[in-house]
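Researcher: Here's a chain I'd like modeled. Treat it as a single chain, no partners, no ligands.
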Amino acid sequence: MIAKVLVAYSLATFTVALTLAPVFPKLHIDFMRAAVVTFPHGVALAYVASLSKGERRELLPLNAPLLALPFWYDGLKHYLAAPALHVALWALSSSSKWKGAFRRSLQAVAISYFALTIYSITSADPVTDAVRLLAYPFALIYAVSCQSFPKTFGEEANWPLAFASSALSLALLAYPHPSYALGFFSPLVYLVAAKFYNLPKYYKKVKGLEGVARRAQEYFWWGHALVIPSSFLPLLAKEPLTSLHASLLGFVALHIFIHFPMMVPIILKVPNRRRYCKLPLPLALLSATVWPHQRHLAYALFLLAYSTLLLSTFELPGGGLAGGGGAEGGGAKGPRGAQKEERR
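Model: Modeled as a single isolated chain. Structure tokens:
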């Protein structure tokens, strides 16, 4: 239940953050930081719960204060240590019940939550705070995607490199010390760890599918293909604020968009249109690319990407304009879909 509440709430928070961006920058930062915490946290709770073999530990009372984050971010920031440590320990406990990719993935999830714990005990101005916060979604992306991306196409990630990318992302917590820049190199290590170099081979498998399954896996494949150029954009930036927006609008947003149509309707328990419209993917990358040069255009592009994603994913009330239907198509193998492969 708490995962559903946090994901739904974070979508509303993110929408408000986008709306406030042009006119209320301080509120935009507060709402955006809250969304960057609550959305991945909701997804991570659902992910760890699905691999916990009946060990339910969502703990609504522990997570309920997070609903006040958008309105009192600085006051509640230090409280993040409580739910972060809880999930880190839960993930480590659950990892002991698995072997292979799921064990490694859960261990990497724990690293991301240790990053959130360290972040929560620091204090800084809003921009510095936002750069440091990136360590959490970066490490969580590596934890989940190194399991889901190669496994979808029948392969295993290079887990030593995956852990190296997670460790490297922790350098972002050192901002403004110069060593923080190492954190923006972590996506390059992740690309190798998750075997992005096999994308041409993976596409041959996609072409062998039909119908909804093909649309889903084509969407999944194209999203990851666009992650590659997005990984380099923060390194080309001339200032931390530009690297921050390049990461959020490109690398982080693309990973959210990739998994959004396949995971969020399941978490929220709402109908899925199964359109798998690929337009939001290049729009997000384009938004990240033009932000340093034309921020208003970048804002418009990302707003269009986000709106298109929502409209192509969620069934409208009554189903009058939806369509879709049929059996759920391919996409990433969910935790439950491959659990039997990983059990002791």
